[in-house]
Amino acid sequence: MRAHLVSARPREAALPRSLARIAADGWARDESGACLLSAMRLGPAGPIDDLIGYEARVNGWGIPHHDDVGVLIEWSTRYARECLRRADREVKALFTFSEPHDDVPRTARVTFWAEHPGNLPYSADFLEWDTPAMVLSNEPVTFLYPCDDIQQELMEEMAGVMVAELGLGAAEAVTRVNAFWHDHRRLLHSGLADHQDARYWARTACHTEVGDLEET
Known about the structure:
- The chain is an alpha+beta fold.
- It has a four-stranded antiparallel beta sheet with strand order 3-5-4-6.
- A hairpin with a 5-residue loop joins strand 1 and strand 2.
- Helix 5 crosses helix 7.
- The longest helix is centred in the middle third of the chain and has 18 residues.
- The radius of gyration is 18 Å and the shape is globular.
- It starts with a helix and ends in an 11-residue tail after the last helix.
């Protein structure tokens, strides 16, 4: 599945009606303070000890099976982006993918949670996972993907190049870096990032020609 995530390219696959309807319904806050997709909210939940875990459980949704893995990935990412776009606070989306086995087809699942002070992120142990997964956010962050220290340093260097040599603000540079890796479906732990330096990837992320930045 990692190979599919790395090689997949954006396409114009219309969202299934069920996913489009959930995204269009937007978000609601229940009595517990949880941030829930309106279509998922079932009713009063009462006091909740683990708001983030509760949000992730309620907001989770399986993406309809499709034989074309590219379409499955496209549906997942477009659905997440549509939901994140409608959130009025910082929300993160988690994608998990499973390989087919026996009579069970390849599947994808997307869930969401908000940031709550004093609560650990739902994916606090993200780096320890051995299954393909991605995280997206509707706020600029410096790290969204499962990568090692060297690859994280590369992302930070890319943002630095954009600030120093392309004149972008720090927040915009971080957003560009994250958007680039998402749009191209390149998981940093695939090792592809190691083949070029930060300046190369910064140029590519900004859709500039390789020679546009002067060598230092």
